[in-house]
Amino acid sequence: MLRMLTAGESHGPGLTLIIEGMPAGVPFAASAIDRDLARRQLGYGRGGRMKIEKDVIGIRSGVRHGKTTGAPIAMTVENRDYKNWESAMTPLVPGPETAIEDVSLYRPRPGHADLAGAMKLLDPDVRNILERASARHTTMRVAAGAAGKALLAPFGVRVVGHVLAIGSVEAKPDTADLDELTKVTEASEVRCADAEAAQRMMELIDATRRQGDSLGGIVEVIAEGLPPGLGHFAEWDRKLDARLARAVISVPAIKAVEIGDGFAASRLPGSKVHDPIHHDGARYTRPTNHAGGIEGGMTNGERVIVRAAMKPIPTLARPLASVDLRDHSAVDAGKERTDSVAVPAAAVVVEAAVAWELACAFLERFGGETLTEVTEHYQRYRERLSAF
User: Fold this and answer.
1) Distance between CA 278 and CA 37 in Å, rounded?
2) Using one digit for the tens of pLDDT, what is the confidence trace for 61-110?
3) In 3D, which of 103, 101, 78 has the Cα closest to residue 88?
4) Nearest of 216, 232, 224, 259 to residue 347 by alpha carbon
5) Region 270-274: what's the mean pLDDT?
6) Model pTM greater than 0.90?
7) What does the angle CA 362 – CA 192 – CA 40 come to, to the nearest 5 degrees?
8) Burial 215-251 (b: 16+ CB within 10 A, else e)
């Protein structure tokens, strides 16, 4: 069973990821992780923090000569901005020269974890909450997703995320060819494979930035090459669609998740929603794939399609009304560095969340201590499927 744990604060010394359960022998390259980390930092509308940080992974254990060893994998990313926050974030007891009030924040930001976290910890200084609740920690979620892709890659599984909408601008990309979708998406500043919509998205971002406001949007992740049968049809916590939904909605600012036709299916008759089953002589197929590759909590062999709705970033250049937690007086909300829109980055993070959860489900189905064992179990299953 794969497990992961992340640690680190937004303005602390760095971020840490520990992965347990990765089989031995999986090809594992720091350069592949760095590519995904760089993709997360790109995107039209990003703020000043991305000009400071250049995320590079440091592999501390569990990988030798480019392959996993079967031991826990430890990885770190340095926060370059820590040098500007060392007095505020040092783990040491601050000296008399440190003005604690200058680094504390008592004005919770609407839409953030600030106020609920302060009430949970009974501490009016929301610094401890915002540092961990920050989207900065998704750096290590992306690293975990890259590890998941490394496990899935030898079996021909690909996971691609792209942007479907930013604000009121909706795209209609051609997703038939995953290679072409990837090529066009990676070349787009907003990770959108519809060039005309991408241009309108950037114009909307510019107009919104000038107003001191922010935008949300919709991202889609497509996973191709998965065998049928991942997940489970009986137990609620083993159903793959439930697991994917939980993983995706745990990404900061994601407020809704759908698989396949999702919300649209609720407005259609069953004859327009359920996928007819065919057999092409080699396998069962569902040409329409309204289900998004999952039926009864399990993959059915078609593409898995997951969409996520992201709310606008709640830290605004023109802050909303708030309350000072020390005396309950009316104030403007606090402000940290912020982006006008982070939907392109969210496409990378959601892609990673999906890749990790699919890797977990894959290893549970075809488990083994080594990649060789996993491959043997997978090939035996495929052979049996071909005669089914």
Assistant:
1) 40
2) 999 999 999 999 999 999 998 988 888 888 888 777 665 556 788 999 99
3) 103
4) 216
5) 96
6) yes
7) 60
8) bbbbbbbbbeebbbbbbbeeeeeebbbbbbbebbeeb
